[in-house]
Each structure stands twice: as C-alpha cells, then as structure tokens.
Design brief:
105 residues; mainly alpha; 5 helices; Transposase_mutator; Mutator family transposase; DNA-binding; transposable element
C-alpha cells in the first residue's frame, strides 16, 4: 500500500516545518550540522546529483542519529518530488527552506 503524499514537501507552505520536525530527532548541538547537510541535497545541479546527495546525507546522519536518518529516508519520495520536473523550472521555494517566509510578522 502506497503511503499518502506528505503535505510538507518542498514547495508547499509547510516545507519549513519538515526541517524543524527532522531536527527534533537529533541533539540540539547537532541540529545546525544536520540542517546544513540537508540543505546540500537541494543545492545540486541536476536530479541525479540531488538523489545521490540525498543518499550520502542519509548515510552520514545515520552514523550518529539513526532516528533522524530514518525520518529523512522515509520522506525521500516527497522531498525529491521536484526532481521529476525539468531543472529549468525549479524555483528556490521548491527547495528546502528553514526560515519563516515572512520573518517580519
């Protein structure tokens, strides 16, 4: 049975919440490190590189924070959905955001 789509995929208004939820699976001191690693997934030149970097990040995180790695691996399909579209139409908001979109509110 296929799981329902995650409402917190990149490009949705809930995308910032995915990173926050993921970071709760690691110690406070490791959260900036994990956030930096995750952002590298979305800073790749093409879909193949995005998928390869995703795998590297999961493997790296898994060594110290298996619960966080499992959480990230479970969200793979949803987080990488944007790679199914041509690179030319990828937008920054389709990528991972960790700050509020309206910080002045």
């Amino acid at each position: 049975m296929k799981k329902p789509p995650c409402p917190e995929r990149p490009g949705s208004a809930a995308a910032p919440h995915y990173l926050r939820n993921l970071l709760t699976k690691a110690s406070k001191s490791a959260q900036p490190w994990i956030a930096t690693l995750v952002r590298t997934i979305f800073d790749q030149p093409d879909a193949e590189a995005v998928r390869a970097q995703f795998d590297r990040v999961v493997t790296t995180i898994e060594a110290k924070f298996p619960a966080a790695a499992e959480h990230l691996a479970d969200a793979r399909e949803d987080l990488l959905a944007f790679t199914g579209f041509p690179r030319e139409i990828w937008r920054p908001e389709q990528q991972f955001v960790s700050e509020p979109l309206n910080p002045g509110r």
